């Protein structure tokens, strides 16, 4: 068992170096060739972590199999569906309350009721459709890394994973900002917002014992800005204020979910 743990820790270091190097080289190539990053790349690029994790797991010859390291066992269909539904609902609620908080503080205004209803109805549909893409990220970050670092405790492991996840997005967001396809203010705020989101996604995995709830929650193509009127007019300061509100809510939700899971295991 101790040898397995040592191999797993070494494998996580290989994974982190390889995945960050890969995304940096790919994004750097787009810049060097003066080629605009295509719209489909962020979606397809989510599979880079899964491919790298698969290669590392096989190269390190880790025991237990891929289902174990990627935390693919849902514990039954009912548990899978319940975990996915609750996780998507929690994330939507966080974004909605954050948008209401932004309106209360005078930072921005909430979209009208009709648009809000349309967004709410489409979230579950897109969560299923885009799960094919987010699967490639979640099995690596909240699957492989979280499984390997589970002995470090929830907050330490989830924060470390989220930090690596943020670092993975820096080359992409930076390259898009340089090319002018993503405003610098949005690149900064969107990158920072990934840290609390990553911790919350880890909490979903801990609560339900499977990566699937995080896959579907991550697939919901939504942020607080989508629930605000004229988000493009918000400056960096206002965007950071929105991120701060959402971050506090996400961390609170992560605390509740992870604490409840620990209580159930006693």
Concise overview:
It comes from Myceligenerans pegani. With 266 residues, the protein is an all-alpha fold.
Nearest-integer average pLDDT: 91
The end-to-end distance, rounded to whole angstroms, is: 24 Å
Query: Could you tell me the strand content as a percent range?
Result: under 5%
The overall number of domains is 1
* SS-derived structural category: mainly alpha
The profile of the biggest β sheet is:
none
Helicity level? over 70%
- What is the global morphology? globular
What order do the SSEs take from the amino end to the carboxyl end, as H and E? HHHHHHHHHHH
Q: Measured on Cα atoms, how large is the radius of gyration?
A: 19 Å
Number of strands: 0
Name the quaternary structure. Answer: single chain
């Amino acid at each position: 068992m101790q040898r397995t743990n040592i191999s797993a820790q070494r494998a996580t270091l290989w994974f982190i170096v390889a995945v960050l190097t890969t995304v940096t080289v790919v994004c750097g190539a787009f810049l060097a060739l003066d080629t605009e990053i295509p719209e489909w790349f962020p979606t397809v690029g989510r599979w880079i972590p899964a491919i790298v994790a698969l290669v590392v797991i096989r190269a390190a010859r880790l025991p237990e199999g891929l289902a174990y390291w990627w935390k693919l066992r849902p514990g039954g269909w009912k548990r899978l569906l319940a975990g996915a539904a609750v996780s998507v609902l929690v994330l939507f609620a966080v974004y909605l309350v954050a948008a209401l908080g932004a309106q209360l503080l005078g930072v921005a205004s909430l979209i009208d009721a009709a648009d809000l209803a349309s967004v709410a109805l489409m979230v579950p549909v897109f969560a299923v459709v885009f799960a094919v893409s987010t699967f490639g990220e979640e099995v690596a970050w909240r699957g492989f890394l979280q499984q390997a670092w589970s002995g470090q405790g929830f907050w330490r492991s989830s924060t470390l994973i989220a930090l690596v996840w943020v670092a993975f997005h820096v080359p992409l967001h930076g390259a898009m900002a340089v090319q002018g396809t993503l405003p610098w203010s949005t690149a900064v705020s969107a990158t920072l917002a990934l840290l609390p989101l990553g911790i919350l996604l880890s909490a979903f995995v801990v609560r339900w014992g499977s990566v699937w709830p995080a896959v579907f929650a991550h697939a919901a193509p939504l942020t607080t800005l989508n629930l605000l009127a004229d988000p493009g007019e918000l400056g960096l300061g206002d965007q950071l204020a929105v991120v701060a509100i959402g971050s506090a809510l996400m961390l609170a939700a992560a605390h509740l979910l992870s604490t409840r899971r620990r209580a159930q295991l006693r």
